[in-house]
Amino acid sequence: MEKNKCFMKALKCRECGREYPLEATHVCEFDFGPLEVVYDYDRARKTLTKAALESRPRTMWRYRELLPIAGDPTVGFQVGFTPLVRADRLARHLGIRELWIKNDTVNYPTLSFKDRVVSVALSRARELGFTTVACASTGNLANSVSANAAAAGLKAYVFIPADLEEGKIVNSLIYGANVIGIKGHYDEVNRLCAEIAGKFGWAFVNVNMRPYYAEGSKSMGFEIVEQLGWEIPRHTVVCMASGSLLTKIHKSYQELIKLGLVAEAQYKVHGAQATGCSPISTAQKAGMDFFKPVKPNTIAKSLAIGTPADGFYALRVMKDTGGSAEDVSDDEIREGIRLLAQCEGIFAETAGGVTVGVAKKLIARGTIPANDSAVLCITGHGLKTLDAVVNCVGRTREIKPSLREFETLLNADEQVNG
Amino acid sequence: MPANVRIPTALRKLTSDEEVIEVSAGTVADVIAELQQRFPGIKERLLDEKGTVRRFVNVYVNEEDIRFLQDQETQIKDGDEISIIPAIAGG
After folding, report:
1. Which of A31, A181, A244, B36 has the fewest CB atoms nearer than 10 Å to its CB?
2. Which of B13, B68, B88 has the CB atom closest to A309's CB atom?
3. What Rg, from alpha-carbon coordinates, does chain A have?
């Protein structure tokens, strides 16, 4: 790579195109449109080549030219390059020829795709001179900010809905972060954070650091393409909360095409939501290009955003690529979690159950054709949302430490199973 | 007691860095008209050409999104808190 490692040119409003300097700011002063990083693709193309990639570490930072920091990363060196698993047993179950799981349940260090965005946001926050970091979170982001801030020696304040799963709360507290539970749903946490973000001079990863933060999600898409042997999957199914990940997966495919790393191809990006919080999928199914905010009520708490900030853009990506959206009930979410676990040995959190459940529906109705190939983005680990499945996994059967008792149990099983 | 509007950072250049603006009661639309009269230019930041609230602007009355109320027709009483907040990402 060149000595000058800054491939960013400016921040630019996605709505009106006005440009802003590369600071901790996220909203266009004119129309409130979100700001996005503009890159120098001509320079990036020279150094981000397949040959160069061969010698780079197998982390998300191998795509450094397309990640928005100015120097070397200082937070989260080991993040990313999670396994892309060929899921033949699940494929057979869902009735599709070829299926892959992009398994971010084992992302480092906090077992969700949020480690990707946080390592970018915190590295950039340090470059801009911040010493306190913060976030509004449905859980996974809070876990990742807490852990990565601890490792980087930064002070952290994380704001979450007070009724989150215990696993997600403990997983933030353990790192010594200041965890603030807000009595309300995520949209209310978000509103509060938007109001306090400007006030204390903190780096709020999903508020004033958002243009940098959101770009970290692209690494998931870069990896999928590289791990498929430089091929864009025909179908990608992505869960949607704010809709940001779905838009960034699409952007990652577009950037790889732009840099000449992969051939232009037809692909569809599909969005998955829980029926109890489905503003984007409801709009997509009705053929609308705007959504109506909702009050969330679903076990998929990590997706429970009723006013999705990137909903418009997610709808546009699905429209442009010919993708579809669908949503699933709480029972279908639990069934999705169980299917993935029992077919592939991967324990996903509720958002993963949403993705599997929606993929099942899209395949069953032929939206994803049976003779085709698809990638499911699985974004977080099931140990974080044990509460959601604890009552539907059966119970351990207890016996004394006696061979006779075990043989009796086994005989009973054999009679049941024939 | 009049109602208060909390002005987001992105609009404070228009209000000479004033964070909270006192307005008289009426509807949300009336409040926006009053703001425009006192801080020319603020209306086009909040509303598009058709007069609807821009898609990345969220307006709350007493912490409730006006899209769950009566939108710009939502009545503002004395003592109400109105917040104008840009949409932000999650999760």
Report:
1. A181
2. B88
3. 22
Residue A294 belongs to domain with CATH number: 3.40.50.1100
Which pLDDT tens digit goes with each residue over A161-194?
A: 999 989 999 999 999 999 999 999 888 898 889 8
Number of domain units in chain A: 2
Closest approach of chain B CAs to the CA of A135, in angstroms?
Answer: 9
Averaged confidence pLDDT in chain A:
96
Cis peptide before A211 (omega within 30 of 0): no
Domain-located, residue B91:
no
Give the predicted TM-score (pTM) of the model: 0.94
With an 8 Å Cβ cutoff, the interface of chain A facing chain B consists of: 15, 26-34, 114, 136-138, 140-141, 186-188, 190-191, 193-195, 198, 206-207, 210, 213-214, 241-242, 244, 290, 292-293, 295, 302-303, 305, 307-310, 312
Distance CA A400, CA B82 (A): 65
Sheet containing B3-6: give its strands across: B20-23, B3-6, B81-86, B57-61, B64-65
Supply A308's token pair: 């999705």
Interchain proximity A34–B87, CB inside 8 Å: yes
Stretch B61-76: mean pLDDT, rounded? 92
* Whether A138 and A283 share a structural domain: no
Q: Which residues of A touch B52 (CB under 8 A)?
A: none
pLDDT at B9 > cutoff 90: no
Residue for token digits 């009705």?
Answer: A286
Q: How many domains does chain B have?
A: 1
Q: Are residues A314 and A355 in the same domain?
A: yes
Query: Do A72 and A100 belong together in one domain?
Result: no
CATH classification at residue B53 = 3.10.20.30
